[in-house]
Structure formats: structure tokens, C-alpha cells
Amino acid sequence: MFKRYELHNHTSESDGNISVSELINYMVEENVDGVAITDHNTISGHDKAFKVIRENNINIDLIYGVELTTYYGHILCLNLQEYINWENINKNKPEIIFKQIRDKGGLVGIAHPFSKGYPYAKGCRWEMKINDYSMIDFIEIFNNPEPIEVNEKALELWEELVLDGYKISMTTGMDLHGRASMENCFRTYIKVNEKEFSKDELYMAIKNGQTFITKENILEAYINQKANSYYISFNFHENNKKLISTEYILEIKRKGQKIITKYTKGLIIELKHGINKGDSIIVKLYEKEVNINNLLAIAPVIYVN
């Protein structure tokens, strides 16, 4: 079972033009399974959201969060029920505030890292010096309102860090400030056990690098070892659009190696070069050709144990 989460949303509690109640109802209309309230520098919408869901018996997961809108970049916090004061943040030592967020049970994320900053929108672009990337839980690789070339840089940053060995999840965000079309936008999913689902599932999926990014169909990739060889197999979960194998391309990437191949049902790929414990493998699905404009889905990172 897969659940879809919208993890970056604003309401009239900060600079949005949609109330908390309207946002939640909109998410229900869009068949979203979980919604994060991430207003700028306030958690005032948390209790209101909880009340709306409880009083109307709405079946949606509520994720408490906040977007800390600093002068040097926006820190997207999930699973955080307390406000963190960032006014004295040191842009050369952001790990201090990252630790405060984690100590409160929160997840630390970088929102739209390559957004236009000064003089267009001071603080939107990430300008902090990160000394320890292990303190980052996720990067918003697709902020859907941003131009594709801006998001491509975020994707490349995430890939570089993952292939260097960091366990950092990928997420997407509508960055809603009101109603907006979600058609053809990237979405975040997690895989859950239908019988044993708990509120910790999203937290653990992000912590373990097990998020799915897609526009339509969900892509999974598995690695198996036989003797001294490793093999990757694939699985597609169709939401609304059926896959036509001759039109889809897989890219398998690890440190020092890239494989590009057409997808065919039952495809298994042998990794012929040496695989080491601790290696990370990224698998992406494209339509017709490997181009950011043709990207359809990214599977959770394969970590070789």
C-alpha cells in the first residue's frame, strides 16, 4: 500500500490565502493521504488543523511542521510540534539549529535550495554553509512552482550527496499558498503496511531514505546478490497511466557508473563492476529519453548493506 503526502503547504496563518480548514478540504478533494502544515515561522495552524480533522471525522494524516524562513535559506521542518527560534542563526554553523529541531523529534529539510534569492526574494535561496550533511534528513528536490531548471539543480545536489554516502531522502512540495493545480506535478509517496500503519511511518521512511517521487506510476527497484554478482530488478505500480515499455527508459546510477536501458517487463540488470557495502544506487524512470523534462519517477535509493 502506498500513501501520498503533500509536505509543503501554507495557510492564512502566515502568508497563504487559504484557511487551515480550506487547505485540508482541498487535500481531501485531491485524494491526498497526508498533509503537512508548514507555515512560515509559526505553528499556530497546528491545533486548528487537528480540530478540523477531528470534528469532521476526516480521514487524512496530519503532519505538524513549520518552514523556518531564515535570511539564508528556508528550513522545512516536519514532525515538529514546537516552534524553534532561529533569529540568532549562524549561517556558517546551521547544525546548531538542526540539532535543536532533531532534539524536539523533528525532521530537518532544505526547501527549494536553488530558488532565486536576493534581490528577488531574500532568504529563499540556500546560502548556509553545511559542515555535516548527516544532519540533513531530506531535500526538497522538486518544489513544483519553481522552474524545472531550478529543481534540476536540487536533484543534482541530492544525487551527489547520496552517491557520496549520505542517507538523505528526497521529497517534493507544492508549496501551496492557495488552491493550485496539481496536474503533472511531482508527488511524494511512502510504502506502508496497511494492517500496521502508524504515524511514525513517514518519519521512518524519511529517516531511511525510502520515499518515492513520481508524476504517475510508482517505481520500485530491488537488489539481490547471487554469488559475487549483484542484480537489480524493478516493479511498477500503476496509478492512472499504464506503462508502454517501448517508450520508457531506466537510468541506474552509482558512484562511477551509469547504466541507461529501455524498460521491458521482467527486466533484470547485472551490475558487472565491483559493488561495495555502503554503496548507494539511484534508479530513475524517463519517457523516451533521459532528459529532466522527461523524468517521470525516482525509486527509493538502494543502499547496499
TrEMBL record:
Residues 5-72 form the Polymerase/histidinol phosphatase N-terminal domain. Signal peptide: none annotated. It comes from the Bacteria. Coiled coil: none annotated. One of its GO terms (molecular function) is 5'-3' DNA exonuclease activity. Transmembrane segments: none annotated. This is PHP domain-containing protein.
